Amino acid sequence: MTSEIEIDTSLEDSDYYYMCQTESLTDSINEHIFENGRRYHTYYGEDKNLLPTDEIEQDRLDLHHQIFLNMMDGRLHNAPIGNKPGRILDVGTGTGIWAIDMADTYEDAEVIGMDLTPIQPVWVPPNCRFMVDDAEQEWTYDSETFGFIHLRNITASISSWSTVLAEAYRCLTPGGYIETAELGCTCYSADGHIPEDNPLRASFDMIVDAMSQIGRTFPQPGVLKERLEQAGFVDVTEVCYKQPLGPWPKDKKLKQLGAMTLMMLEVGLQAYSLAAFTRILKMDPAEAERRVRLATDVAKDRNNHIYNRFYVAYGRKPEN
Ligand SMILES: C[S@@+](CC[C@H](N)C(=O)[O-])C[C@H]1O[C@@H](n2cnc3c(N)ncnc32)[C@H](O)[C@@H]1O
């Protein structure tokens, strides 16, 4: 009898590992494109994550982590998870910096960072690991296996919050905590009104407009709380922090926050604007870059006193 497909009779265990786990998976999840000088991950489709994933973006995320910590007075979370939170999941972990800090802080906990893109470091605490996954698909984790689920700064890529939060609800143990933390994209001024043609405000407004065209909505006060409550979580609390765009505040802590934010504002605006303006609003790349520069100049001008808001909401899965 002849076989239709010729069989390799010298197969070894490592061949299976090579084909099923390592090479094919690693190659495909690393698919990316270079566009307007930045690298974007494309394995899940070009518009899945409109932010770049290159080293410039990774450095920005790590600096932003420090800014988030400063805003929250050094705390990694607001949810009252106690000393033994059990397993912890960080959804959209980015460079994994929050997950690594959590693993160092809660040595008894197993911390998993999940992301579309494998940009996390290899040398991490023994109780921390990373997985490539899409939070908007059914999660691969068993039900009721996490004591704390954390989602930070993933608004620009999430179209279906109800899907993500339903999976989080399923995977949390009864009584377990969820925390969602997101930057708004609205310019506020300590002096009052900001004209619509102010280039910084105009850029923020265009980011909101472009992102909303593909179903991504930046939060306003109360939105995160409402999302958690609609998903079934209880005892939900929302806290709002101010993030100055420049070192203009008198308060020492806010001044430092503003200075740090200004350091990353241009790359941050570029990250949020370039793909959104060129792919969705069909803007010329040179014009998109020009708008980023004009917007950054507004924040650098010490006559302007502009800030954004950062919202953090946490809640609990009911016991019953
Ligand atoms: C702006 S970064 C924030 C990273 C991190 N949470 C932090 O606060 O430092 C957004 C991250 O979310 C990831 N992401 C976006 N959509 C996702 C999805 N559907 N599933 C998993 N990760 C996602 C992106 O790949 C990116 O690393």
What would your notes on this structure say?
This protein is an alpha/beta fold and 320 residues long. The chain has a single domain, classed as Vaccinia Virus protein VP39 (Rossmann fold), CATH 3.40.50. The protein is 38% helix and 20% strand. It contains 8 helices and 10 strands. It has helices at residues 13-29, 55-71, 97-105, 161-171, 199-213, 223-230, 252-280, 285-300, and strands spanning 32-35, 38-41, 88-91, 111-115, 128-132, 146-152, 172-183, 188-189, 234-244, 306-316. The strands form 2 sheets. Strands 3, 4, 5, 6, 7, 8, 9 and 10 form an 8-stranded mixed sheet that branches. Helix 3 links the parallel strand 3 and strand 4. Helix 2 packs antiparallel against helix 7 (252-280) and helix 5 crosses helix 8. The radius of gyration is 21 Å and the shape is globular. It starts with 12 loop residues before the first helix and ends with a strand. Residues 13-25 have low confidence and may be disordered. Residues 49, 51, 61, 65, 92-94, 97-98, 114-117, 134-136, 152-154, 157 line the site of S-adenosylmethionine.
Q: What's the mean pLDDT score?
A: 89
SSE run: HEEHEHEEEHEEHHEHHE
How many strands? 10
| Poorly predicted parts | 13-25
Radius of gyration: 21 Å
* CA-based shape: globular
- CATH superfamily membership: Vaccinia Virus protein VP39
CATH architecture: 3-Layer(aba) Sandwich
What is the number of helical segments per DSSP (H or I, 4+ residues)? 8
CATH topology: Rossmann fold
